[in-house]
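Appendix B, Record 12. Input sequence as logged:
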Amino acid sequence: MLSAADGPSMLSPQRAVGAVAITSALALGTAVAAPASLAADPQPRATHAAQSDLLGGLLNLEVITAPLLGGSPQVGNVLTAVAPVWNLLTGVTTSVTWLRDGVAIPGATGLSYLSTAQDVGRTITAQFTGNALGGLLGTVLSLVVPTNGVVVTQGASPVATKPTAISGVPQLGSTLSAIAPVWNVLNVLTSFQWLRDGVPIAGATGLTYSLTSNDLGRQISVVATGLLDGLDPTRSVSSFVTALLGGRPEMVEAPKVVGGASVGSLLTADPGEWTQKIEFVFQWLRDGVPITGATASTYTTTAADAGREVAVKVVPDITGYDGAAATTGAHLVDKLASLTALKPASRQVTRGTTAVVKLAVYAASGAPSGELALLDGSTVVQRFPLPGGSELQVVTARLSKLGVGTHRLRAVYLGDDRTAATASNVAVLKVVKAKKGKKSGR
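Logged structural output:
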């Protein structure tokens, strides 16, 4: 067989012309008739057949090695797909789509697929699509090739190949950490529950747990539960550790009282900072004396606290420690507000008669004591000691020696250790001369 590799000198003129014509036709994508001198020559016919076979191979995309599906078809396992081998070594773009019973699975377009509970009893396949630009003619070639199918089964629950464990120093005030187990399958959702002597600790469901006084001498462990979609949960329990006393807690930052100053305010005890993370007990104080029943972390002030100093004693709640306590600074509660009033029996009196004036002071939730004074201008006319015992205190002033003229009367409450001082508005009292022919009376 002759070819262009044999060189022009080895071709007859007629054959050279034919070769050029065929080459030009292939390049242009057109058909030409072979010269008559070549039509009867069997050797050129064989060469043309070989070229046709080569051209056909360049124009078709075919699979040399079929794609394969691997992996154990059980829930939680990963299936893998091996791409096909194409007849064209270059220029082929390959994509893959995973199918469940022939329907594309959203987002499953990689070479691996994690089987889920939705796949149980269903046939899973991977479908490969090859795209290439057609050789000499410039057409787009496309071929879709599916893998073998597998039916997914329920499978077994996950198994911890390495059990959960606890890290950290097991002493009061310290924080323990859970080390998650290693499961035999992927994508297992792990949750935790800390145990005290085998009993779940309320609210202790995180990766860490801080030991408290309730844990002293007790066996602390953690259970990890593995959950995989469609499978029964699996538990992995750590070995236990015994909580020890540890070092004495020391105060780093002093405790304080947070809240308002008025009666009825909610006060909160801030225990401050300590060398260990521990719990506390509290005792609220009034002027240094324990308030009966006030042992919570909060306290609402009452009328009994008005004008007093309130504080709280903070004690670490750890058995075995003595003297590890601190008391906050004093929190002064405002005195009770008072209201003072004055009312003359008459706005005008005759000189020589007695003017009657009532004075009152009121303090809600209190019992005002001390003195209530009556002023004429800036001069104190009378003082009245108050007995206390009730919210409202009323006294009566009798004035018989007022001179003729206008008198500006005012009641002033001087306050006590629990009730704030206050003054009334000014009341005007006029004293006039007696009319001629009339005697002044009392």
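DSSP finds three helices and 39 strands in the chain.
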